[in-house]
Amino acid sequence: MLKIKNLHASVEGKEILKGINLEVNPGEVHAIMGPNGSGKSTLASVIAGNEDFEVTDGTIELEGEELNELAPEERAHQGVFLSFQYPVEIPGVTVTNFMKTAINETRKARGLEEMPANEMLKKIREKSELLEIDRKFLSRSLNEGFSGGEKKRNEIFQMAMMEPKLAILDETDSGLDIDALKVVANGVNRLKTPQNATIVITHYQRLLDYIVPDHVHVLLNGKIVKSGGKELALELEEKGYDWIKQEAAV
């Protein structure tokens, strides 16, 4: 699904990613953990095509097609979805209208007709029920006045509607209480299929109690320095990152 080879990326001349290698297969959930400033959010942004970051070496491939030269919206049309750590507010644009536009733009890019209105409404109804989203919520301006939990739930609703091949969740758990965390995690788990894949970027093991990863990777100083199964996340929770830093320094 996703193949990253020797990825180097910098911002304003400062190198942040220093040779990332990562492979994600369909049906898998990968968790990326690491201390602050290790490059986790940069990696998410670079995969999604954020133009603030310059890729200086390496390749990113989705299903064998290189993404390096594609704009963010082209990557989205290919099936890449990024859930933001801090979603932006768009006053005057309702959640429903935003979703209709996003879906139809992607369909247009794939040479398809716009989704019929009745089909769109049915899909909105199904996905909002799946994520326990109140119907009134859908007529509000996108993220305007939303609580932290509402913003994150809305991001997962967008993911449910877009049905991406690769979903990247950048610290979706930050600022969530346990109830909101469970709703978000439940939505992610229900959307998992053998045809899609998810990368979860998180500081905390608690999210991984609810979204169980197949693989856990530790990012440190712009490199993946250790990979393992879900037990690695528990070890990090217990011991912190100092032992990883010592291992990496040897």
Automatic annotation (TrEMBL):
Transmembrane segments: none annotated. Residues 2-246 form the ABC transporter domain. Keywords: ATP-binding, Nucleotide-binding. SUPFAM superfamilies: P-loop containing nucleoside triphosphate hydrolases (SSF52540). It comes from the Bacteria. Gene3D superfamilies: P-loop containing nucleotide triphosphate hydrolases (3.40.50.300). PANTHER family: ABC TRANSPORTER I FAMILY MEMBER 6, CHLOROPLASTIC. This is Fe-S cluster assembly ATPase SufC. It comes from Robertkochia marina. The gene is sufC.
